[in-house]
Amino acid sequence: MSMREMLRKRRAVRNLRPEPVEEDKIAALLEAATWAPNDRLREPWHFYVIRGEAKRQYEEAAHAYLRERFPTKPHLVEESLKVLLSTPLVIVVTSDIIPGDPDSSRDNEYAAACAIHSMWLAADELGLGFVWRTRGIGLVHDDRMHRLIGAPANRKVIGTLFVGYPAEEPPATKRTGYADKTTWLLELDSESR
Ligand SMILES: Cc1cc2nc3c(=O)[nH]c(=O)nc-3n(C[C@H](O)[C@H](O)[C@H](O)COP(=O)(O)O)c2cc1C
Predict the structure, then answer these.
(1) What's the domain count of the chain?
(2) Closest Cα to atom 5, ligand 1: which residue?
(3) Phi, psi values for residue 50, rounded to 5°
(4) 78 in a domain, yes or no?
(5) Ligand 1 site-directed mutation target among 134, 173, 175, most atoms within 8 Å of CB
(6) Reported pTM
(7) Which end of the chain is less congested by CB atoms within 10 angstroms, N or C?
(8) Distance 44 CA to ligand 1 centre (A)
(9) Over the stretch 102-112, which tens digit does the pLDDT of each residue have?
(10) 132: CA distance to ligand 1 center in Å?
(11) In angstroms, what CA-CA distances link 96 with 127, 133, 138, 188?
(12) Ligand 1, from 117, 132, 156, 161: best to mutate by most atoms within 8 Å of Cβ?
């Protein structure tokens, strides 16, 4: 399959089977990530692999978060938690914050995003389901995740990746054609400049 076909085929797979992901496949995902482009080769990412007892602690933190966030919606809390319970592998990706240099720190986040996309494509190639979560149980915007992984203050949580074998065919998604998203600047209107 060509790279462009792979890019079109990649999907967010949210329903995963609980059986463990093999060590060599986890290593392959992490290795793929390290080849992502990154400014000045700062390699500004760090990966936290969450399984076993660490995952149980994550489940507790996520449960507490969900109960606080949705106090009147116990059904939603249980449904969200069920997704996490059936996910065998979680990888949290951080990017380095450079004190006093917000521009480079932002570039570091972009590099981490590139690394995540590389992992997403590699997962697809390995027959693994994968979704990058930031909202809800992803806990990316909640300090609990930062504390759980024990990251130093200069690492920002960028994504929580849920990985496992797919429990179902993910739904098809659509994209707007590039023509509607592109401005071709070949004939600049001199009056508008
Ligand atoms: C930065 C980022 C954050 C995302 N956060 C979530 C999330 O919190 N929960 C979720 O179910 N999917 C999340 N996704 C996955 C998108 O919802 C998904 O890519 C989108 O629905 C398009 O589906 P597709 O990737 O299968 O084409 C996120 C994707 C990105 C890039």
Answers:
(1) 1
(2) 133
(3) -110, 115
(4) yes
(5) 134
(6) 0.95
(7) C
(8) 22
(9) 999 999 999 99
(10) 6
(11) 30, 19, 19, 39
(12) 132
